[in-house]
Amino acid sequence: MKTLHNHVILYDAECPMCNLYTGAFVRNGLLDTHGREAYQQYSGAACPNLDWQRAVNEIALVNQDTGEITYGVESLLKVCGNALPLLAPLFRWKPFLWIATKAYAFISYNRRVIIPAAASDNQFGYQPSFNLKYRIAWITLSWIVTSLVLATYPSLIGGNVTGEMFIREFTICAGHIMVQSFVLTRCQKGKMWDYLGNMATLSLAGSLALFLITIICMRFNISWYIGWTGVFLIPILMIREHVRRSRLLGIGYWPTVTWILYRVLVFIILLLSIL
Prior knowledge:
Layout lengths: L6 E5 L4 H12 L8 E3 L13 H6 L2 E4 L5 E3 L1 H11 L4 H5 L1 H15 L2 H4 L17 H25 L6 H25 L4 H28 L4 H26 L4 H21 L1
Parallel strand pairs: 1-2
Antiparallel strand pairs: 1-3, 3-4
């Protein structure tokens, strides 16, 4: 693969995801050894034309020879297109570019609720902009996937799936979002959307973990492990992660308490309906 020389990609040092893929660019030779730098440490004098807020929202790629700057998915495709020239025409194809741009924005504007940044006393002067449209899209996607996974879960362990199960799970997950929204409006209204984004990530991760572990257990005939995992292990890990994310947001413990109480109440109601 060809190296894109004399270019520096500016990444968010507080974003583990950004750190990971820009580091991969350097390790795999797509960029020079010093081809990436955290924008928090980048000197503005080195590139006076840099749009700092845009660079924080959309990763910037600086041509050190000409001073040309590209942002967002265009930066990533420029690096990849140089490394893989055969794919360069695809990267310039307008329908592909449109889809890639939307997908990039979807991830970029939600990156700090997908993988939250550690708390820092020295905040950089610019912070990622909040985009309500993409935050709602992330919460909606997580709600749909989580509900579908939980509704179809019985079929993985030999049970029957009915239309009522889909309605039930979609209603339960939607109710959880509404309850937690109300809780945040009462205690930390300004952080409601950040919290809901983190909650959506947690629900999505928990449901997918349950799905994958169940598939693995069924494949290796250790079905006894499924119930223990679903009832104890995954909920405990989710509670720990909820506490951690709440601490990073600085919203206290009440959201965690109500988050747990809602699920316990739902579990009791479902158990009584079976009995």
